[in-house]
């Protein structure tokens, strides 16, 4: 028997493929200029870090009593930002929320890059960074192991687990889309994406295992969102310092993390959709939904501030009471009240539809919330350390140029990673988008009949 | 072993593919593979193979992670059995965190390993009959049959609306 | 109620729930509970009856308000699968008058449940004084009841509309938001005044959030149980099918994990800090021999067992089995409310007597009777919720 073939039918192109893969075409000169500028800032920050390592931690402002400064503020800030990405990609997936589809890829990327940024700061803060591996439990001559009762060791375990699971979840979601990029590419680019997609062939046999694995990871990522930032909050709550030792820290930090993460997604996506021409896929409705979520997180944070202040008074504990009063009326009062205004009062304006559907307002409010959340971490960390039990132990802290440079470089590092992602991987999930659109079309035709 | 022929059909809609799958099942054919630009979960009953045991990998990973996490924390504390900070050397309450996080990590890793193994994902070259359109807007059906059945199957697929059919 | 055919709904509008037999059983339990309260023998030493009344007030009022909070939450998030579930949530309104009456009874017994009345604490007098407590706890519960009544009334009015108007939907949204905010406020005060102040020297910022979140968890279990009771008689069909129960089961699993997380956060922080003014509460319940077994058993029954059982997708799709898990969780949470209250007020009491158990069953009877009576008089699915399902909720 001889083989027979029909004439090849003209290839069908999905508009989603065309639109999203089109964003990966040759970057402009402006793009490369920005990438180079960001890389430069990162190099400057790295140089400051080398200077700090060679000269000693004294070039940073951290000292007794404020031994944790801007580096730890940045660590908590960046870990916090990561949580919203997982909320949108995993938790909203489990709730079958449809508006998540076109934004979750960028949100997940934000998670991974924020964690990669956060992970730098314990190393920067460490001093003798060359012995960082002592925190890992490996067999050694001295039979010394890290103390697993220490919150700092819990941090290592939790953040490592979160980074690994986030990277796996991110890559898993990307798999079919990396194959789509492969199939639309030639030569070396095709080979690279073939490796990244692990030879994905769009077979149903792969899809059925994929669906189960994706659900598995979504179910796993959900408790991670709650647990990881709870563990980070316990770095503080496990102490007995006034302002730190309080039982509500875990949900308070988690709500704050999601709050800052949502603000960051808004800040990232508003320009991204414009630059990449994705306005049809990332609409105002998405931002409105995120703003509504921010109302919830703002209320949770407001509740936490209120219950903390109330309990400081109700407890009758003089140390706790004087600390709460000092924080609200002392030298840090400006930072304290700006944090409350930025985190709670401003986002409550999202109750008004006009406010939450205006992209310029959303962008500005996103910046305000992010700044206020950073200030909140500063108030928590610096406040309790600089004003604890004994007046003789009270002190001050101000970051030096080294800390400011490294912190700025961290922002540049994050933006650099995100920009590289935006031009080399599909920022909108292609296959899932096509599946959603097909399901909707099918439901509409069913309804019409 | 008798020779098998592969009939490759391409469709531009999921409906066309669905009709083809129904037709093949009615004709008694079960040996086929489906390619699609997105997962066809609702068509699962029409597929040759269903379900997934990735969850089993995940469960094993969970047990390994939980046992490993608690064992790591408890045994490493017992080596130097010191009371630190007024806490007993091996304290279950804080060790729940280590156990919990390592459980999640292990489940994730095992689930991914399960996916890679079960989905036979490899870095080898794509098969000859793979169409790049499968990641765009084309649905594919590769049916294996005996040589004498080939033309019947091909005709059946053309009848249900396949835009392109190859017999090999 | 006659059937109204909708464009996409080929099934006729379902008839009302018929729960007469369940209500009869509840009435018997109510009478037995009341009899035990009035005529039951007191224990030989300190009578735990006031503590048990308080624990039951916290538990059953919590369930009623939690049901209403769920009705509000499901509307706010536009959960298009929940037309019947939110109607069952609204039935909590029927128990609220009983709640308020109970609060009045607790006021009468205030000397036996509020230790700071007998031994005032001057430095806390600005908060721990009776008039202020009545205003904040009683007042917030009353406000919550009024908001819930308004929300349910608006919902029932919408049932009579041909098409639910945008104005009605907007009103429902505003009222639902108000209900959720007042629920948080009222239960914060309840936790501070009726749990935390029973050990006046102890404090924890986590107690109020833990209280109202674990209450939402228990209310989900109550939703499942009530759903099972009304399901067969309702003919609610697709509005209360296996899919809805599975979703409730998943929600229950999620809130169970959240409750465990909050419990652990409080426990760990207190355990780690090891500060005497904080540890007293935990030691009395989880370490002292008198209550250790009961407290850990309560935790295991309320959260541990349901957590493992709810992993099974097979179980969640079977309403009967799911209801069994819900019942176990409810028993556990009830026990946990006793653990919160009794060791503070009656530390020598090791367990509850038969009188106290029958009183508690009386509360069960009152709750069941009022909620089922409500459900017998209304359509099993809210029109606003059905319209939401037809328009397929939020999505792109």
Please provide a written account of the structure.
The complex is a heterotrimer of chains A (449), B (168) and C (396). Chain A has 449 residues and is mostly helical. Chain A is built from 16 helices and one strand. Chain A has helices at 15-22, 29-55, 70-94, 104-118, 120-126, 151-183, 187-196, 204-237, 249-275, 284-314, 318-329, 333-348, 353-356, 359-386, 401-424, 430-448; one strand at residues 4-5. The longest helix of chain A has 34 residues, at 204-237. With 168 residues, chain B is α+β, with helices and mostly antiparallel strands. Chain B folds into two domains: 5-51 and 123-167, Alpha-Beta Plaits; 54-118, no CATH class. In chain B, strands 2-3-1-4 form a four-stranded antiparallel sheet. The mean pLDDT of chain B is 88. Chain C is mainly alpha-helical. Chain C has one domain (30-378). Chain C has helices spanning 20-39, 49-76, 83-90, 96-108, 110-113, 115-118, 130-159, 166-194, 207-234, 242-273, 276-287, 289-309, 313-316, 319-345, 354-377, 383-390. The longest helix of chain C is centred in the middle third of the chain and has 32 residues, at 242-273. The chains are: A mainly alpha (449), B alpha+beta (168), C mainly alpha (396). At the A-B interface, strand 1, helix 6, helix 8 and helix 16 of A face strand 2, helix 2, helix 3, helix 4 and strand 4 of B. Strand 1 of chain A pairs antiparallel with strand 4 of chain B.
């Amino acid at each position: 028997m001889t083989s027979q073939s029909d004439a090849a039918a003209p290839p069908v192109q999905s508009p989603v493929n065309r639109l999203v893969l089109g964003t990966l075409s040759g970057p402009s000169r402006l793009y490369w200029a920005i990438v180079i500028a960001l890389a430069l800032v990162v190099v400057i920050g790295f140089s400051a870090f080398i200077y700090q390592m060679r000269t000693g931690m004294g070039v940073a402002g951290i000292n007794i009593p404020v031994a944790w400064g801007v580096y730890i503020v940045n660590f908590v800030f960046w870990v916090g930002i990561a949580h919203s990405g997982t909320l949108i990609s995993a938790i909203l997936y489990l709730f079958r929320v449809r508006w998540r589809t076109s934004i979750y890829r960028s949100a997940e990327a934000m998670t991974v890059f924020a964690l990669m940024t956060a992970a730098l700061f314990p190393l920067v803060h460490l001093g003798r960074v060359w012995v960082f591996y002592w925190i890992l439990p490996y067999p050694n001559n001295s039979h010394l192991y890290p103390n697993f009762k220490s919150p700092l060791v819990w941090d290592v375990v939790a953040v490592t687990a979160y980074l690994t699971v986030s990277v796996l979840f991110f890559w898993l979601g990307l798999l079919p889309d990396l194959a789509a990029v492969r199939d639309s590419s030639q030569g070396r680019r095709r080979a690279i994406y073939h490796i990244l997609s692990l030879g994905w062939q769009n077979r149903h046999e792969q899809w059925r295992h994929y669906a189960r694995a994706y659900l598995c990871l979504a179910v796993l990522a959900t408790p991670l969102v709650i647990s990881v930032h709870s563990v980070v909050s316990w770095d503080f709550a496990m102490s007995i310092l006034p302002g730190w030792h309080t039982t509500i820290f875990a949900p308070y930090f988690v709500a704050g993390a999601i709050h800052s993460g949502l603000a960051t997604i808004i800040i990232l996506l508003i320009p991204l959709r414009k630059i990449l021409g994705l306005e049809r896929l990332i609409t105002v409705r998405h931002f409105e939904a995120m703003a509504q979520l921010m109302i919830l997180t703002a209320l949770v944070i407001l509740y936490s501030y209120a219950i903390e202040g109330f309990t400081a008074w109700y407890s009758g504990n003089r140390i706790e009471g004087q600390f709460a009063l000092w924080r609200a009326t002392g030298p840090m009062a400006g930072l304290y009240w700006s944090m409350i205004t930025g985190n709670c009062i401003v986002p409550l304006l999202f109750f008004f539809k006009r406010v939450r559907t205006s992209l310029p307002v959303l962008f500005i409010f996103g910046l305000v919330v992010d700044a206020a959340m950073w200030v909140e971490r500063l108030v928590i960390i610096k406040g309790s350390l600089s004003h604890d039990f004994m007046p003789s132990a009270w002190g001050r802290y101000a970051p030096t140029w080294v800390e400011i440079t490294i912190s700025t470089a961290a922002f540049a590092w994050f933006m650099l990673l995100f920009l590289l992602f935006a031009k080399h991987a599909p920022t909108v999930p292609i296959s899932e988008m096509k599946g959603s659109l097909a399901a909707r079309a099918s439901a509409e035709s069913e309804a019409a009949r | 072993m008798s020779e098998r022929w592969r009939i490759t059909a391409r469709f531009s809609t999921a409906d066309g593919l669905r009709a083809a799958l129904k037709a093949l099942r009615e004709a008694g054919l079960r040996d086929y593979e489906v390619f699609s630009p997105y997962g066809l979960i609702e068509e699962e009953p029409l597929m040759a193979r269903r379900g997934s045991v990735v969850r089993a990998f995940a469960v094993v990973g969970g047990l390994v992670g939980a046992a490993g996490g608690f064992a790591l924390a408890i045994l490493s504390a017992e080596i130097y059995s010191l009371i630190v900070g007024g806490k007993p050397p091996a304290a279950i309450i804080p060790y729940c965190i280590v156990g919990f996080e390592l459980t999640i990590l292990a489940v994730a890793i095992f689930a991914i390993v399960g996916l890679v193994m079960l989905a036979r994902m490899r870095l080898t070259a794509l098969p000859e009959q793979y169409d790049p359109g499968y990641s765009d807007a084309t649905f594919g059906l590769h049916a294996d049959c005996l040589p004498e059945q080939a033309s019947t199957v091909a005709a059946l697929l053309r009848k249900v609306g396949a835009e392109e059919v190859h017999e090999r | 109620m006659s059937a109204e055919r909708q464009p996409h709904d080929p099934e006729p509008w379902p008839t009302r729930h018929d729960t007469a037999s369940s209500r009869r059983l509840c009435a018997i339990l109510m009478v037995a509970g009341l009899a035990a309260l009035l005529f039951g023998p007191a224990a030989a030493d300190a009578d735990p009856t006031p503590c048990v009344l308080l624990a039951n007030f916290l538990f059953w009022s919590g369930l009623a308000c939690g049901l209403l909070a769920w009705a509000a939450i499901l509307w706010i998030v536009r959960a298009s699968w929940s037309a019947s579930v939110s109607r069952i949530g609204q039935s909590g309104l029927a128990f609220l008058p009983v709640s308020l009456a109970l609060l009045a009874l607790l006021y009468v017994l205030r000397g036996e449940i509020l230790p700071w009345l007998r031994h005032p604490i001057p430095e806390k007098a600005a908060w721990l004084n009776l008039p202020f407590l009545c205003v904040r706890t009683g007042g917030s519960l009353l406000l919550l009841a009024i908001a819930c009544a308004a929300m349910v009334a608006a919902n029932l009015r919408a049932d009579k509309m041909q098409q639910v108007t945008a104005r009605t939907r907007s009103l429902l949204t505003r009222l639902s938001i108000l209900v959720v905010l007042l629920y948080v406020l009222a239960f914060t005060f309840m936790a501070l005044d009726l749990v935390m102040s029973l050990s006046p020297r102890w404090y924890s910022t986590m107690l109020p959030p833990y209280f109202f979140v674990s209450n939402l968890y228990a209310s989900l279990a109550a939703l499942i149980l009530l759903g099972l009771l009304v399901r067969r008689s309702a003919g609610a069909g697709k509005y209360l099918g296996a899919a809805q129960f599975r979703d409730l089961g998943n929600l229950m699993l999620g809130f169970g994990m959240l409750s465990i997380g909050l419990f652990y956060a409080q426990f760990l922080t207190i355990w780690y800090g090891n500060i005497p003014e904080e540890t007293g509460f935990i030691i009395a319940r989880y370490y002292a021999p008198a209550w250790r077994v009961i407290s850990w058993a309560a935790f295991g029954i309320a959260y541990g067992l349901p957590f493992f059982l709810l992993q099974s997708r097979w179980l969640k799709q079977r309403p009967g089995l799911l209801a069994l898990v819900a019942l176990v969780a409810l028993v556990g949470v009830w026990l946990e409310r006793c653990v919160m209250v009794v060791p503070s007020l009656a530390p020598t009491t090791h367990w509850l007597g038969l009188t106290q158990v029958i009183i508690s069953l009386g509360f069960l009877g009152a709750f069941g009777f009022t909620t089922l009576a409500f459900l017998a008089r209304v359509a099993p699915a809210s029109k606003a919720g059905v319209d939401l399902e037809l328009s397929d909720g939020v999505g792109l």
